[in-house]
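Please go through this protein, sequence plus structure tokens, and consider how the sequence yields the tokens. Keep your notes short.
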Amino acid sequence: DAQVIDVHGATVLPGLIDAHVHLQWVPGSVYRKDDPEQLRKFRLHHLRAYLASGVTTVLDTGISASVLTDIHNHLKSGGIGPRVIALGPIFRAPGGYLGEDMKFPTGGPHWRAAATEHDIKDLFKEYEGIPNIVGVKVHIEFGFGPFDVWPIHTPEIRKIIQKESVNYNRPIYVHAHDERERNIGLEMGAHAMAHHGFMEGSPSKDFIQRMKTQGTYLTTTLCNAELKLVHHHLERLEDPLIQLTVPKEEIMTARDPKAWELMSKIMIRYNFPKWVPTFIPNYLSPLILDQNENQKMYQNASKAIFTMYQAGIPIVVGSDSGNLPHFINMFHGSSTIREIELLGEAGIPSIDVLSSATRIPAEMMGVDHLIGTIEVGKRADLIVVQEDPFKNLHALRTLLWVIKDGEARRPKDWMKQ
């Protein structure tokens, strides 16, 4: 009684994997001031959006234990969504990046800072018993601008994190952007870099060699820079995939100039120390959305990724969907497809981009015995597209069927409650 689907003339691929998402955070929620009930409704909608976009597995790289547990319970009870894998705990220094000064009511539960060995062990305990945790995340972030805004862990605390990560068999994923931060991450034995970085310049040959020698993976997150350009091209919100998968409230927010203004003010504030008067970053906030500057940063990051690809660094697709709740168009699901297209535009051959969205992230997460390729004995996570993505990655937008654990549905049917 198996379901038979005629896919003559179409292309069958493994289900796509997005290796950098944030299921806890809802795009534009800071502007709308969504309440907890609405936030949960959006989160469950986003789970369906991933499947409707062809993404059958996601890696959440920053989620509280309570929200992660709620999502697992929802899926276990028959809820619709992708295979959810996660990192945990997430380590930040007291006063560091994603600290209390960056917390918003709509962000949901927050994770504590780690100042001592006791803190580190307690954070590990918070995630005990939660399935599909494949690593930990460490924030090594001084700041996005010319100032060192945030402290990072001391060398002593970093060594304790390393030791406990080995005890729990959870490799270290590093949040870092510039080369100084990334080299500290490599000293910690980073299994993966969670962002592309290098929006201001190119990686050095020494750094690339260190990445290659250690076998460290690079997650792309080009959408971080490129999707800000939507502010100048709101017609992109008419994308059929966005219209199918994104809640109408989120699309309306992304059309609102005041929402973009609030986002830019919040973002620019993070570039300055707390002692700088608020009126200064507010005055400079339009720079965050400057079209030429964002185009330049995107192109720099794109070139850096291509350079590291050419050097043999394993590249992994990650959209950073959800990002932070003041970002207004890092949409869940559709952003993954955009991330894949951007890697093709960077110059990476289609076959290798598709590997970066299937086989390579499965290997990075240690689940390649289950997913990532089409083989007898693996999970039946597949997609069927009408056109040939090996010739043109835009073919992923001609999605006919998405098969998750053997259940086949059309994209629009995955969006049904």
